Amino acid sequence: MSFLSAIGGDAGIVSTAGLDGEVILNGYGVEIYDTDFGFSSTPTTSFVVPKNVRKIRAIVIGAGGGSSGSQNVDGAQAGAGAEGFITVTPGETLTVGVGRGGQGRDTGNPGDGGDSFIRRGSTTLIQANGGVSTLSRTGSSNYSRSTFTFDSSVTQISGGRGGSGGSQNYSPQTDLDAQSEFVNLSGATAHAGGAGGWGNDIPVQRGFGIGFGGGGGWATSVGPRRDGGIFGFRGGSGDSGGCIRGGGPVGGEGNENFSTNGNSGGGGGSFGGSGVDGWSGGFGAGGLVRIWWASSDGDVEFIDSGGNYE
Length: 310
Hints:
Shape: elongated
Number of strands: 15
Strand order of the largest sheet: 2-3-15-5-6-11-12
Low-confidence stretches: 1-10, 258-263
Oligomer: single chain
Radius of gyration: 18 Å
Largest sheet: 7 strands, antiparallel
Strand content: 15-25%
C-alpha cells in the first residue's frame, strides 16, 4: 500500500514508484500526484471505492510542459483541468493516472507534460491532458493538445484548457481565464495551469481554481512569475544568479545548468504550471488527481455544493 492503506475506512491506494499524495477532508478524500519529472509514460495507481460510496467528485489536472534552451527563450504550455461527478460501486477499483511534469533541458529536446485521468477498465471516465513542451509549440498557434475529455456516464462540472505560453519570439499566450468552460454547479470553478513567459513584456499567466501559476524566465532582473488560483502555488523564476523552483509539492525545477549567458529558466507551479526557458530550460509542474466523497465530518451532500475544495 502507499501513503495510506485505508482512507475513509475502506478505500485503498496501491501505488507505483514515484507517486505520492495526501489524505484530505479527514479521510473522506485523497490527492494523488507524481513527484518525478521526465519522458516516461504516466504512472498509475489503483483507487478502491469505500463501502457505501456510490458517487465521487473528482478533479484532474494535466502536467505542465518543459522548456529548453534549444528553443531560445520560450515558454511551454500548461496542463488542462477537468472536474465531474462519477457514479461508482462500493468496492470497485478505478485506475488513476497522474501526469508527470515535462523535463527541462539546458540543450536538447524538453518533455511534454503527462496526462492525468481516471479509468474504469479500458474506459477513460475523465482526463485532462498535459501541456506540450517548447519544442512542440514553437512557431505554432495550435495548442489543442492541452484539453479535456469526459465519458458520457460522467456528470460534467467544468473544464479548462491550459495556458499556451509566450516567448521573446512569439506572441503572448492567450488569456487563461477566458478558457474556463461550462461550470454548471453554482459556486464551482474551473481548474487549469498557467503558462510561463520570458521577458518583461510577456505576461505570465495565473492558474485558476486548483491550477497553478506559470514560471518566469530571466528578464532584466528576476523574471516574472504568477500565483495560482484559489489554492495557488506560485511559479518559479530565473535570473542571472540562480533559479527558483515552482511552489507546491510537485513544482517544476528551475534548471541550474546555466549557459554562457548565465540566465536560468523558472519552473511551473503545482499543479500543471509550465516551465519557461531563459537560455536554460525550466521544468513543468506535475499534475493532480483529487477524489472526494464527503465532508470532513462525513456529510455526503457536501460534494454536491459549489466550491467545497476544503
